Amino acid sequence: MELRTLRYFVTVAEELHFGRAAARLHMSQPPLSRAIKKLETDLGAALLHRSPTGVTLTAAGTTLLEEARALLGQAERIRARVTAASTLTVGILGDGGDRGAARLAAAYRRRHPGVEVRVRETDLTDPTCGLRAGLVDIALTRGPFDETGLVVCELRADPVGAVLRGDDPLARRDSLELADLARRPWFRFPDGTDAAWQSYWNGGEPREGPEVRAVQECVQAVLWNGTVGMSPLGHEVPGDLAVVPLRDMAPSRVVVAWNHGDTNPLIRSFVEIATAVYRN
Question: What's the DSSP call for residue 193?
């Protein structure tokens, strides 16, 4: 018995009419009738009582309907599990783009050409990119953040600078310290944002300034209001802005993170490939 033939039979049994069943299956009636006849021959039992007005199930047909529904349901569950095993959902922090991510994507495709990689980009208010909510399998992101229940692997550490308007007197400096920016307005993240993440991007101090959620909002806050922004060195910023290195700011860590206890082999392979790509 083929699963396709069982689906045909279940549809006929539910409609109790070959014409309606054929329409539902998007096929013509003669091949549907032949398929059901062949099924009856293979099983050696009549499954349907046929009449000009439709069909009814025989005792054998009623039994097969129950078993066929169970078998088809199991087949769908198997399909779903196999599909999930060949799909990896990666959370990426929307931090303006990381050139390493493009190299990682190319390397992962070469290693796993049959895996569908789904990407979920998150704003700056969730540095774990949906890991805790179960929205992604693994996150390519930046620390620091609360690592409770997570495994975190560092890939790279980037020096950080202050993003200032080009006409700001401090923009002409070769480097700065956090104390040079103490009286300036800083961007802030919304209440509920990870405390370690918030503290890092505010230089370890409580700050006053506009609330932002995305990189472009940070950029616009600097352009319009002279707000102090922060950026890893090497990230491109608009020409009207300057990034001045901060001597006393700890580097921004590029990391991969996943839920502790997740044994998905695609995650393990992702970490191995990411480590090689970023460190080489």
Answer: S
Q: Which amino acid is at 251?
A: P
User: Beta strand 116-122 with 87-93: parallel, antiparallel or unpaired?
Assistant: parallel
Residue 36 — very low, low, confident or very high, per pLDDT cuts 50/70/90? very high
20 Cβ contact list (under 8 Å, min separation 6): none
Burial readout 103-134 (b: 16 or more C-beta within 10 A, e: otherwise): bbbebbeeebeeeeeeeeebbbbbbbbbbbee
Res. 11 pLDDT band, cuts 50 70 90: very high
Q: How far, in Å, CA of 125 to CA of 196, rounded? A: 12
The predicted pLDDT at position 84 comes to 57
d(CA 270, CA 119): 13
Query: Using DSSP, how many helices (H) and how many strands (E) does the chain show?
Result: 8, 10
- Which pLDDT tens digit goes with each residue over 213-223? 998 898 899 99
Cα–Cα distance for residue pair 278/280, rounded to 1 Å: 6
Full-model pTM: 0.69
Residues in contact with 112: Cβ distance below 8 Å, sequence separation at least 6, in sequence order: 266, 269
